[in-house]
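dude i think i finally got it to work??
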Amino acid sequence: MNNKKAVRYNRWGYIFLIPFTIAFLLFQLVPLVSTIYNSFFEHYMSGLKEIGPNFVGFANYAALLKGGDIFKYFLNTMIMWIMGFIPQIIVSLLLAAWFSDPSLKLKFKPFWEAVIYLPNLIMAAAFAMLFATLFSEMGPINTMLVNMHILKKGYDFLAHTASTRWLVAFMNFLMWFGNTTILLLAGMLGIDTSLYEAAEVDGATPTQIFFKVTLPILKPILIYVMITSLIGGLQMFDVPQILTNGVGGPNRTTMTLIMFLSNHLYSKNYGLGGALSVYLFIITGILSLIIYKFNYRAD
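look at this
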């Protein structure tokens, strides 16, 4: 009798999974299979004439590797992600440790937590348009620097590789450090306080407690943050797209993989676009696995 009740009760779990399963099949699995399928075909527009679809095997994959552009754009993407992620994780760890420390007795803590999360709610396109205006050659930042006699004339931030990459990285940092802080804070608040008390009794300093107690316990959350941030970095598109008007300037040094993919889809070259999507899927899987294995390696 009890087994029958358990079976009836378990049915509700499967019933509630039905909407997710349907959505996954329609909006994720079917497009994934369709993308892989289309990657083996020649299919593009030549003027008003549609070429294909003609089966070409792995020719699209070979064509992407032959030019070398995919490696350049992958390097651009990783450089800008790393430039934004390193300060993001450092600042987020410091803020989370600050907010979770009961000895500081911070006032209005929920308010400050909400404030640092607010940039995450702003659309990336709005962020990019704001920074494009602020850092334009005749924009407020240059005007202020000239008036303070730091610069003799306006500096064209978007005409130089280093400054453009730093702007992209800084915007990504501003948009995501609040989300990362909340995740790390939740992990720190879940740590048993008796562990900290035991470490203090043993004479550990606050720095030793942070590195020997807090960070090891936070490892699963840190791995989650790194992998999700990596996936977001590989999908970097809207900020550099709007900031550089879609050209990835200067000299395509801020062109990302997704911008490269968007160009193929915009030109309706579906075969190359599908092959590039598969490469992105493979790269994301390999890098995520490396991060996971590296963090869980034997001490």
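The mean pLDDT is 88.
im so relieved honestly
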